[in-house]
Amino acid sequence: MKTQPLRPARVEWAADGTPRAPDFGDVYHGDAGAAAQARQVFLAGNGLPRRWADRDDFTIFETGFGLGHNFIATWQAWRDDPQRPRCLHYLAVDAHPPRLDDLRRAHRDRECAELAQALLAASPPLVPGLHRLDFADGALRLMLAFGDVRDWLPEWRFAADAFYLDGFAPALNPAMWDRAVLRTLGHRAAPGATAATWSVARAVRDGLGAAGFACERRAGLGGKREVLQARYQPRRPPPPATPRPGRVLVLGAGLAGASCAAALAELGCAVEVIDRQAAPAEGSSGNPAGLFHATVHASDNPHARLFRAAALRTAQFVRRCTAVPQGVDGLLRLEPQRDAAAMQSLIDAQGLPADFVQALPAAEAGARAGVPLRSPAWWYPAGGWVSPADLVRTLLARPGIAFRGGVAVQALRRDGAQWTCVDGEGRALAGAEHLVLACAEQAGPLLQALGWPALPLVARRGQVSVLPAGVLPFDLRLPLAGDGYALPLPDGRVLCGASNRDGDDGDDPRPREQDHRANLQRLQSLCGLTSELNVDGGRLQGRVGWRVQAPDRLPLVGPLPLREIAPGMRLDQARLLPREPGLHLAVGFGGRGLTLAPLLGEVLAARLLGTPLPLEQSLVDAVDPGRWLVRAARKAAGG
Ligand SMILES: Cc1cc2nc3c(=O)[nH]c(=O)nc-3n(C[C@H](O)[C@H](O)[C@H](O)COP(=O)(O)OP(=O)(O)OC[C@H]3O[C@@H](n4cnc5c(N)ncnc54)[C@H](O)[C@@H]3O)c2cc1C
Ligand SMILES: C[S@@+](CC[C@H](N)C(=O)[O-])C[C@H]1O[C@@H](n2cnc3c(N)ncnc32)[C@H](O)[C@@H]1O
Known about the structure:
Layout: E1 12-13, E2 19-21, E3 26-27, H1 34-43, E4 57-63, H2 69-79, E5 87-94, H3 100-106, H4 113-122, E6 129-135, E7 140-146, H5 149-155, E8 160-165, H6 179-187, E9 189-197, H7 202-210, E10 213-219, E11 226-232, E12 247-251, H8 255-266, E13 270-274, E14 290-292, H9 302-320, E15 326-327, E16 331-334, H10 340-350, E17 358-360, H11 362-369, E18 377-380, E19 384-386, H12 388-396, E20 401-404, E21 411-415, E22 418-422, E23 428-432, E24 435-437, H13 443-448, E25 458-467, E26 480-482, E27 484-488, E28 494-497, H14 513-526, E29 541-549, E30 556-561, E31 579-587, H15 593-609, H16 617-622, H17 627-636
Parallel strand pairs: 4-5, 4-8, 5-7, 8-9, 12-13, 12-24, 13-20, 16-26, 24-31
Antiparallel strand pairs: 1-2, 2-3, 6-7, 9-11, 10-11, 14-19, 15-19, 16-18, 17-18, 21-22, 22-23, 25-28, 25-29, 26-27, 27-28, 30-31
Helix pairs in contact: 1-2, 5-6, 6-7, 8-12, 8-15, 9-15
The site of S-adenosylmethionine has 21 residues, from α2 and β5.
């Protein structure tokens, strides 16, 4: 999906406080008031809260999130309902989300001030993409897609139980009620889905009818004589839903495994995580600290879109883990190739707001970091650092997850419907119908032994160094990234790194003096130091790990394609590939596990359990483990 710069809403406020959209010539809600309209047209119109009673999950999709009144009313109804579903997925799309000031004003003096306050506090920067916000400890998930509904609907996979159709009037905003949009709603409807809207326009009724909805006009409210309710009744009934797996086995207790386990457990799955090490985070995820941040790219390519979505998700995710050492107060990424004016032009061309990224000249960036920087820098206010080792341990201690260490898996075996992990003598160590391989480069040999082709992964040795407090001739205040990185730890020490060497130098995990020295040099040039640091490389503390990466620098996350592809199978898009039942991959996070693993763990869990995808399909395809098959097939076809 090609992203367009996001144009925030222009909201005008009438004397009586009614919000209007001058660009559409319409009001945000009818004269009955936003809350009454939400309750009567959208909740009651979809049979809510009755229809969600005692469900595990319930999914609502809204066209036009606007000022969030329908969301707040739904949240209130869900919160106050003793029979509420355990998990409510609220999905919404908006091409012109409001600025914070307008959102604040819309909810001033409202009855649910604390819910509105929480929404305001969690509101993402206004950048294109899908944003996931957690409320009520993750039981209420708001997924907000910023962009045009016509672009988003084909890209977003979910099955909604209820639709709130709340664009501006069809005559004033036909794009929102486009026939193709309404038709796609049919493809996104769960069995028994309903839809509601205040518009009874002919085009809306016809469009919904063509999508498989049976429409009924009902008595309206306020100045609206009638409103519309619809029930999904396709001519051909959908196939029965496959039962959701109740238990999943995860092999590997690093960032990848812990993120997958946490996402699965949050959706009610029982998860066992096993690792050959006695304790979690003993592999590459054991560093005391690491960075996460987004990137900006001139063409907003899939890497940039993925890293933007993922870094914003990590910031949200990490802030919820309050006991984990962290600093989500911004990060500077040095930019030696451009000057600040060229960087600013890039930001302006993409319409990126200052709470997402800023271009700072060297002097300003240096003043912020407390370091004499020589090049300008990108300032990412939601970037930061976190302790991966503590994050992994905290995630694995969550309810629903059992960790078992000292389990060295030598091979995998299929026993009927179950995948079994076995030791060198073929003795079963653990098993489940669904197995997630999150064991970094070891996933390759395990799969190859079963007949899969080699995974395109390379492992590169890396080492971080930790400098004692007071060694630097300045007080580094913020994480810095560039060629290498440096970040201040809470106890005054500075972590820097990281060496990056080919896998040809063995698997010795002991830190090396030469790599410490290389890290010191990197730190000096990062910080613009002209004289050598007075540190003995031989006495530094450090830690070694391996960055495991595919050639396209994207991880491999999702269900594994079939081992053998039969002739005639469609291979032109990753989403169409036939899959091996029960086998999933989460590997290849390279040097960006902290940025990528929280979001991609959620993607893996959503695909495995059939819940709404928290990422657009083209990016899900970009990290699909089967993308190599697609590329090979396209190449063979001359594409
Ligand atoms: C020096 C260095 C610095 C880095 N800095 C950053 C940074 O600042 N920011 C960032 O985002 N990322 C950083 N990274 C990258 C990040 O650490 C990785 O992306 C991440 O740790 C990968 O997590 P993982 O779970 O895939 O792998 P791992 O943490 O290695 O986990 C794999 C687990 O699988 C287990 N396992 C493997 N095979 C078997 C088997 N057969 N049986 C049982 N268990 C098995 C292993 O014991 C291990 O615990 C850095 C990496 C290095 C090396
Ligand atoms: C009536 S308002 C929605 C009010 C909202 N449901 C609430 O509860 O506050 C309509 C919304 O649709 C959005 N919109 C208009 N055209 C759109 C399009 N083509 N794609 C996505 N959103 C669109 C507008 O930006 C606006 O926020």
